[in-house]
Amino acid sequence: MSRVVLITGGNRGIGLSIAQRFLAQGDTVVVTSRSGDAVPGLNVVQCDVTTSASVDAAFVEVEAKFGPVEVAIANAGVTRDKLLVRMSDEDIDEVLNTNLTGALRVARRASRSMTQARNGRIIFVSSVVALMGSAGQVNYAASKAGLVGAARSLAREHGLRNVTVNVVAPGFIDTDMTAVLSDERKAAIVGNIPLGRYGSAAEVADVVAFLASTDAQYITGAVIPVDGGLGMGH
């Protein structure tokens, strides 16, 4: 049965791969981006997750066109990497407001119709660095770690209403964000991954699709690593 699936930051990278995965299985897929620019083959709405008004407007538009959101995937994220002693307040605030608070805004808005319908899936896209840590990414790691506590708390709030809340924690995935790394840095990273390679965005998308499926209806509050063994389930 086709569902309405909303993916924030679904216009590129992992988000786009997730969108294509749900589209291939027949769901009605809507992706958000700050620009709202068209993405071939996908429905797009403009949304800036750093403001509640923009998140609400995006949901209103989706609900009017397609119906209530049944699967909400909070994927939008940014990085502002540098050592903490060199980070400005803006570096910290922008990452936390987008990656963590933005995801909470999306989950809060999605929860309205899901709890009323007593059915829904909320999935946060975190990172392997959430629990491993990463030098130069204190702000990013904090934002992604916060998603774990948020998901598990929300899973307890929504459990009796048949709404599951889970976290996917990708490791190093072959995307535009990792493509800019030097060959030396890439080799060092791969050397620490038991499977000896980067992951693909499609592999992350497969896990997200599983968590949204009926096969995962008894899974909630879980953190699923997709990292080739890098974090060893931290």
Structural overview:
The protein is α/β, with parallel strands linked by helices and about 230 residues long. It is about 45% helix and about 15% strand. The protein is built from eight helices and seven strands, in the order βαββαβαβααβαααβ. Strands 3-2-1-4-5-6-7 form a seven-stranded parallel beta sheet, sandwiched between helices. The longest helix has 29 residues, at about 90-115. InterPro entries: KR_dom, NAD(P)-bd_dom_sf, SDR_fam. GO terms for molecular function: oxidoreductase activity, acting on the CH-OH group of donors, NAD or NADP as acceptor. Belongs to the short-chain dehydrogenases/reductases (SDR) family. Keywords: Oxidoreductase.
Topology, element by element:
Blueprint: E1 4-8, H1 13-24, E2 28-33, E3 43-46, H2 52-66, E4 71-74, H3 89-117, E5 120-125, H4 129-132, H5 138-158, E6 163-170, H6 176-179, H7 183-191, H8 201-211, E7 223-226
Parallel strand pairs: 1-2, 1-4, 2-3, 4-5, 5-6, 6-7
Helix pairs in contact: 1-8, 2-3, 3-5
Family: Belongs to the short-chain dehydrogenases/reductases (SDR) family.
GO molecular function, one term: oxidoreductase activity, acting on the CH-OH group of donors, NAD or NADP as acceptor
Keywords: Oxidoreductase
